[in-house]
Amino acid sequence: MHTLIVPLKVYNANVLTTPHASGLPGSTGITGFGHALIRLIHQLTGVMLEDKGTGMAVNTYSLQEGRPRHVLAGHKKNADAANGKMSSVVDERLATFDLNVLVRFDCDLEKLTVLRQQLTVIASQVNRLNFSGGAIEVSGSLIVVEDDHTGLAALKLLPYDARLLVDKTFVIQQVSELFEEDALDATLRLLKKSEEQNKDYRAFAEKSAALLAREDIPECPDEILDMTYWGTLSAIHVGYRAIESPRSRETRQGDRYQHVYAEPVIGLCRLQSVGSYLATQSNLHNQRSDAYFWQHLVQHPYYVSLETMNHE
Amino acid sequence: MIPQQFTSALTTPLTHVYDLDGKTILKTLPEGLLAMLRAKSPSEAAAQFNTQHEFLELNACLINFALKPSPENMADIDVAIDTFKENITNIVGLLNSCSTHVLKAVNASLPGAMIIDQSEKLEQGYGICKDTLAVDSVYSMGSDAKHAAVLQFWTTYYTLPTGVCARNLDVFVGDHGTYFQTMLEDVIDILANGEDVSSLSAIRRKMVSDSIPHEVYGKEIIFPLSSMAAQDDDYLVISPVPSVTTLKEMKDRYVANRVEFFEGKKAYANELKKFNSELKAYKKIKNKDGIDEPVMTLTEPVYPLPAMKLVKLVASFPQNLGGELMKMDGQPIAFNAYIKPLPFSKTTLGSQKLVQNLHTQYHSLLRVTPVFADLLFREGKTANLRLRWTEELHYGLSKLIQDLVLLRRNGLPISAESVRLKEGTERRYILREMAGDKLGRSLNATDLSEISTHVVNTINYQLVKGKHALGMTPDVQEAVIKALNHLFRKVS
Fold this sequence. Notes:
With 312 residues, chain A is an alpha+beta fold.
């Protein structure tokens, strides 16, 4: 497997992807971009690559700033607002990103050679795509990293302090089984725990060290949760759960594909710095336990984008 | 308190329901009946009916509640028949607008089409969705404010003679068997008194078997079904519809957590006030023998849900959204994420100057400060002074090479491709084994001596440039090389 690094600037990306989660683009947006890029590459070069997932590392991030419409429309303060004298508001639906998208793909050597030759052509055409509904601009040269099964070689090319989105959705089920509560309560518990640990890291480190030094395995579920460092967790929109079986309906594509109505599914991700990710990966035996590539996963009624190793 | 039997609910003392001003009486009805109408969950409901006549009376009460002002006898069937006739469009309209998923939460301009999820709840699922929430699915009802008048008729909980808790809505759809379903149909026929209610059964048919629209509304997401979907043209179109159950559950748990927090905060504020006044009094006392200083017992509560916030839905009028969403004023609770940058500090690699130096090709990363330059010229002459001087030299040198070492150890704050260092030796030292390194081997003794020599040369160059004489003496230079070799071997 190989990795293609696409450095991007994204403007006005949609970060209110469902009424349940805001602040991050949905993981279907990330994988969707990777898939669209593979289609674009096929269109431009005739090379068909196998989609093996997409990762995202954010260098800088800011919510869209602007002025409320009613202020701009007001008579007296109109000039002030336009001149930037008044305080601005933040539009929480839109965000601007400076990021690197990492597309993992599989193909033979011949295709890879063609791809390498056509990289500049592809780079000039990538801005035809959207990232989570936002306009994009390629901010550097595209890089192909060969034989990169774990994606670690590609990561070493990125700034160490970029934030990587790592899937942690599988933890929700583990915690809900541990505490015998449902997924929403488990998610709230994890988010609170993450906040608590980051607020006072020293207290956590002492507690965790004391727990790890004990000979017996703690029985209290709260203590088990305290043994792990969870990092900065965030809820993220990960896909859809169909509420019916696929049917033939008239969509914008005609009746070429089947159609379903589906409700959004909320998952969990960790915002981990590239440096931290590389450090943990070199320590663990199982290198892919935390892999950062999000992949389309189809298991009717679920149509989700997750890190598939932990869910299969 | 809701009475056990419906008949006893009617005999409880009368009470009033007031308008918003608190003076105008809107309705007068028995206490037990009002409690039954106000019950929000099946666990609160207890009023049980036993005969068909009681069931008719019960439904008459539910219908009469819509009347303003209410009749003296709430169970009066003649009044109920008149009320039913007046409200028949609302009764039909309310049933027609019930939905488990709301299209209007995606976009206000979409129609309020009925979507009822008939799929089975699975035992396991991913993330937070229908399968992993430990609650039954919730309906959002009402597309018009007028419907609110007859909400009680469809959604009030009562107990069936079998002891099962039910609502007219569930009974009508057939969740509790055909016996009670026919019973309710008979009651509706009596209340309608010859009016046409055939549209109700048409709606029921739609709810049970044909509950999802044939048209496609809202967004269309094209989802690949395999990793080679682009080649095989293997896709599925998905239209998202937010679930009322999830919206409601998130709000409920958010509110529950918040209430707990604000109660804690209130108790803390009271305690603090008391403590402050006690402390003030204590400070005034001159002779403090035998009097204990007041102690604060409570700690300030921490806000429990920093990761959640209000999200404004796109609809301009909340009543466009249906009952459950109307309660949220079009502002459901959502999880909030924000990508925080890594903590900034001058001593770490976040330093702006360092990043600048990495980008430009004119400067070395090493900087000889005047303090360090002075140190190099006051080399100790006696053995004891020399020892102390060497310690200081080690400290100064480790400060000098700090950036180099941290860059090598932690990685680069910018992409390795964009590093444009003038000094090849520094570049090689930082990038060895990392991305951009063509040789791909670890540092050996030669590399370390190379970087040590480079550091010494840079110090000499900067000393001459800064007009600190002609550089280090051979004696000092030897000591510096020795110290550098030691340091680099230790950290690399």
